[in-house]
Each structure stands twice: as structure tokens, then as C-alpha cells.
Amino acid sequence: MVTASVLAVAWGARDRTKPQPPKRTPVAEVPWLSQEAAAQIVGTDGTLGPLFANVTLGSLAPSGEERARIAEFARANKVAIDLEVVDDELVAIRFDVSYSGCCGYEGAEVLALRAHRPITGGGCVGGPERWVNAWTMTPGDGTFLHASVDINRVSFRWEQVLTTDEVLARADQVFDAETAEIARSAGERWRGIARQQFALELPYSFDSYDYDLWRPRNGIVITADRGRVAELSLSVRPDGEHTLGETLKGHWGRPSVRGSLWTWRKADRIIQVDVDEGSDATITMRRRAV
Which domains does the chain have, with CATH numbers? Predict the structure, then answer.
């Protein structure tokens, strides 16, 4: 009797169905940003798309209704759009999107082409062709675009392009300023180059690629001394109806001229430009010896 009971228990254990592991529900892949939505954000030439038709860089901050409309578009399309406002002025529009899935880089590369992502090498240049991962450009609609691609992520930042006179004014403003304060206000526009040397990116009309963004033509290269700007250099070019020489004289007055070298001696600084009318020029500004 006992033996029969033991056999029954053993048989029951053998007959018991082995539990099955729970079924795994596949993770739904987030849909890519559609071509229609991308066209609303950025034009095929890197300009601001129709989504931003009612906002103006360098003008008053967008209304609450415009902010809400743009925010709803960003939420619906799973992208990030930030309207940077300083002193009630719209100074920048930022866009950021990350493509999901195993091949998200494909979507990122296609979107980057709308902003004319450059390619280097090949042909007469030599070396293998490669896509540039960070670049700046002036699309021609009065804006300046800083764009970057990092595998599956695309980021754009639009600003109002500066005139040459505004760039000169910015150089005057940062000279002898505290580098820590410039870095705080500039954010990602500020980069370290070497010990006591920095680059401040400006929305100016030179295009740059990732291999020269560290010493940008569309910006100011700064040398610091004891935490303050002691020397700087920047490239400028003619714009509008005025020659570069006319713009420089209008900003700093009449220079001392020796050949093509123009010099201004101010109370705290010496400014020098090798001027060749009708072409680009490099300005250097140095602290005067005490």
C-alpha cells in the first residue's frame, strides 16, 4: 500500500507539465521623424522651415500661442525644440532628434543632407572621402546654422547672422572681459583650444567644418592672462554696400597706415588689420604694455 502511494506520487510528478517561460513582448520601435515633419522644421538648403514662419530671430520673443504650437509639434513628432530667449529677444532656435532602432544612423544622415552636410577628401583633394560631423553655414535667409551629427542624433542651432560691424562690436565687448563670464554666457559656443586659449563661435558668414571649428573663422580666438582676455584675433569680410575699409573706419575711426597694415592705438589696446580692399582680413587686438 505504501509502495503504491509512492509510485503514484512519483508518476504524478512525472506527469506534471513543465512551466513555460512568459512570452516576451517585442519592444515597439519608435517611428522615425517623417519626411513631412522634417520639411516643416528645416528646408532643403538648411533654412528654417515653415514651422517657424511666425517667429523671427533677433526680434521679440514668440507669443505664448506660438510657443504652445511649436511645443505641440515637437511632442507629436518626438523631437526637442528650444526657443532661446534673452531679455525678451529670440536669440536662437535649437532642434534635436535621435533616431531609434538598429539603423537609426540612416535616418540621421538623410536629415543632415537637408542642411548640406559637407563631405571632404577624394578627387583632387586626396585622401578618402568622409562625411563632416559638425559644420556651420549661412543658408542665405539671414540666419546662421550650426549643425552636427553624432551616429543617430542630429542637432541644429539657428541664430541671426551678424553684420561685420556687429562682429567688431562683439570683439570690443569681450576684450579684457573675464573669460569665466564669457564662457558662462556663451555656453556651447565657447571651446578650449589650448592652455589659456579659447574660441568663441559667432554667427558670422564664414562656413566652417569640424576640423576647423576649434579655431573658427566665424568667431574669435582668445588668449587669456590671469582670467581676462589679453589678446584676440578674428576674421572679417566686406558686407552690404560698404568696403571692409569703410566699415573699419566707421567703427574705430581713422587708422595709422603703413602699406596695407592699418593700426589703431587706443588707451588700453592696439588694433591691427592687414587690409586688402575687397577681400577677407584678420584683425588682432592686444593689450597695451603698461
Answer: 35-160 (no CATH), 164-287 (3.40.1000)
